[in-house]
User: What shape does this take?
Amino acid sequence: AHLALPLMTLILSGIGASVIITRGAIFQELKQDYVLTAKAKGLSETQVLFRHVLRNSLLPLITFTALNFGYILAGAILVEIVFSWNGLGTYIFNAVLNLDYPALQASFFLISLGVIIANLLADFAYARLDPRIRR
Assistant: This one.
């Protein structure tokens, strides 16, 4: 129960842009020729949407999420401070107040490593979703 409000704070702060990106990608994919071909083959609207359109429209969302992983971590720092949670955010906040430079370097290294891993996972997801990238 005590997890609901901080989690909603993190999710709702970035969900608007994700919805707009997904909506735009879906509308762009609906205009492609392969959608018309799938409909001509006799597939229903639901099958076309979930099998073809949604899969291709996830690519911009994956890129957006991977690139914004650092902002998500920065938001987590703020949420930890506001809701008095102990974690990396509180550790960074206390290190800034105490001018603890080695602690800040280690924290930023961990955050940078997390962003690099998120981008690597996004590349793997791209290769899984888009057969043109597998080559």
